[in-house]
Amino acid sequence: MAANEWINGYLEAILGVNEEDTPVPPLHEKGDFSPARYFVDEVVAGTDETALHKTWMRATATRNVQQRSGRMENLCWRIWHLYRAKKKLKWDATQRLAKHRLDNEQCQREIAGDMSEDFSEAENIGEIFVANDSDSGAFKRVESRPDMSAGGDAHKDRRLYIVMISLHGLVRGENMELGRDSDTGGQVKYVVEFARALAHHPEVYRVDLLTRQICAPDVDFTYGDPTEMLTDGSFSEGDGDEVGQSGGAYIIRIPCGPREKYLRKELLWPYIHEFVDGALNHILNISKALGDEINDGQSVWPYVIHGHYADAGNIASVLSGALNVPMVLTGHSLGRNKLEQLLKQGRQSEEDINATYKIMRRIEGEELSLDSAELVITSTRQEIDQQWGLYAGFNVNRERILRLRAKQGVDCYGRYMPTMAVIAPGMDFSNVIVPDVGDMIEDVEGVAYVGQDGTTVTPATKPDPPILDEILHFFKNPAKPMILALARADPKKNIPTLVKAFGESKPLRKLANLTLIMGNRDDIDEMPSANANVLMTILKLIDKYNLYGEVAYPKHHKQSEVPDIYRLAAKTKGVFINPALVEPFGLTLIEAAAHGLPMVATQNGGPVDIHQALNNGLLVDPHDSNAIAAALYKLVSDRNLWSECRRNGLKNIHRYSWPEHCKIYLSKVALCRKRHPHWQSDDLLDGDEESQSFNDSLQDIHDISLRLSIDGEKSGRASLNGPVDIEKRLQEDSDGRETELTERIKRLLEKMKGHGHEGHENVEQHITQHTRPERTMSSSSKATVLRRRKSLYVICIDTYNKDGQPKSDLASIIREILKSVKGEGSGRTCGFILSTALSAEETVSFLSQNGIKLLEFDAFVCSSGSELFYPVSGNDSGKGADLLSPDMDYETHIHYRWGEDGLRKTMNKFIHSLSDSGRRIALNEESSGTSHCLKYAVKDASNVPTVEEFKQRLRGRGYRCHVIYCRNKSKLHIVPLHASRAQALRYLFVRWRVDVASMTLFVGETGDTDHEELIPGLHRTVILKDAVKEGSEGLLHSSQTYNKDDVLPDDSPNIVTTDVGCRAENIMAALKKLVTA
Description:
globular; about 10% strand; EC 2.4.1.14
């Protein structure tokens, strides 16, 4: 076969497709060359294409020379095209990184120009960069005994409520099924142990770990339990503190998506908002319960909301905005880094990667998380510099500048970037098993293990479990040192390279055995394709190098048996190896070190910091199989080096205890800006939900008046038409027959006294004083009206003409909705909200022109969610916006990170820069903008940047906001980060306890660019067919962003579409479908 010139010609063409475009010498000049060896060892293995390998095997097995030649020719062409595609993908990646660098440089110049005049002579920006860059090279790992003086006392003697979110995977406190799939791995173990450890901290009262409830038949029933206690939160002995019935750590499972299905994380994105609404309901209930228990009835708001991974970070971002509390983020692994790694492999295009992993939606979730996060927790410095630095929302140098300015009290013009903190994960040493290796223990001094509750743990010893016998039966010589790898059969874990390194090193094979713990499996054919391909590759390599009797790969193991496996490896004086291509942290390295195992680990990622802290092994290039084999052989063969590495690991392992982790964590969180709903001190809202100010509900007073009159007539007592001795009346009713009425009157009297009406003897006189037509309704007076509503109907129909004015049929649609809802006999139990991009003046004008009364609605969400108004009762003489009363609390609520002046300046620069580059941008700022809404008129919608372009531009410059095209592409609104029409409804939930689940939204098939945020959630959604013919959603996404299908669920029972025609009967039919669903 080597003599076939056409094969040699194709091979030369394939080898010529390389990154450097260097000439390749002819094959006949290379000496000993075998095309078969080249195909198998280089091309097929290098591309990791299972299909190519199968084709090669079939081709070489063909006896007919002509057929074999045809198959080989076809295989050559396939590989040639594959390498050309790989080269193109690498070129695209290079261009993308170059563009990212240019954007960063431009952002740096703009920020330096905007801020340079405010720096003193001692604050030269260049000096800042030099100083910080020099520090980064000598970055120190977080000390095991942190300095708590800076911010550490900010939460002293406080009982904190902390919310953590980890959405995907199978999460439970005991018998965790780690390795069952790619979603149930180290993150699950980390968040469960972290929640449990935090609950034992004396400053923390309760920790809730929120995850998804799963009632699928193919998973254990425990994942369907709504609540699971992790610990009661009792502190270590001697503290003298006791925890109430609500204290401790809990796993709270929130329903979202189809409960009967276990979904991989890539399929959970459409159900994010369902989880948000369910979590919000839980947090409000727990906050009130904790307030009653430990805070004299005042709600205990979450001290922080901590999201883990992109999906939970997205959820935490929305919850943080709804509750106005600080947010913390831990990325664990990042989408942009994964995208770059997959593109470098060259097996998939960006479109294929996005279709498989929903990678663009994940990246957007991470960007949204950066927008809201005050603090980002990372495991390593590398994660900050090389991974988070790929995102528009973070830049190391810009973050340093802004942090320095904020520290010195210099204006940042509304710019913000989150603080990054390196905190290594902790470990629970209570399950550590001391290696039984004779003299190994004697030379280690000062080894102290600390449990999750802060107490010193004496590691236990116990007999060998069955898993050890199962491993040992693989080996011909079980006494040899064991090389242990513990990882899923995942491509990024790089296990095939480890097997290849072991198989090709004869000295290493003579000296050691190899054990691969690759999760649990029953049938390879039932595994996910990527995992099955990795496992098949490993089995083929074992066969190729004839490693039978030298490699162990058990099918099953329990999580409780993992410490015993570490113990076995240490007992044989073996080595632990993590050969991952990139390892975000490497928790298994910590576990191995705690059991006395030296390590060989990848030089990419977290192991670098672990090695610096423990100094217990060697780092290698994961792509170099020879380097891996050499490092393993060095540790196994050199007993003195092995003992030194083991001793160093055991001596320094205390740095990774959970109590130390929690101390550092709380000290960092204490430096975050303290935020909570600012009306927290308002007794009206934090007390009994039925308690109301005297002005809140005239109807309550009229009801009581009528009741008193009737009772007075029946009993011969005085009615309200004459003087009434209220105190006497209450005393007479103390027999319990009118308990409810009596309590209501008592509350009224207390509020009357609080309003200075102690001297009133006639309740009717007091009623008259507060029912004058000229009375103005304040925002707080809506509490009773909104709370009493059993259901709310929100109209969000975005139908506009080309000029951005509401179409005439919008008024008829509103009337049909009012008619259909009221026609069901809901009466006073239902309310209506109008949510629109129109300003308050335009809304009032439109409704008055079409004869629709403002008092038909309970609230108005205007200017794309940046304003919230309530209608004024009984004042028909006003004009324009005077007929609406603004909710000032809402304005304060959404003001977080709003830099109006700086944002306006940056927008003008952006528009001018695009115009100067030859791209005519038809955007003009309008004077009708409000304090929380910058408005621009769009003259030509075909020549404006998409929402994604604007967001990337503004994020890179430190601005966090919400960009919305609206009113049929005629307007551009820029509003605060936490302002939107969807978030305004959640504000009503938090402010007035109007449950989102009791709301029904009416939307069109399209609308403004925030349209997709309105549809998903626990509320019910009615899509009015043909109500909106043209919208602005075409300006939302570009070709490089996620699809609408990644956001909206296609199987939700809470979403229905009406028949054609927005008539009342069609709307009523849709509402009935929702009720029966």
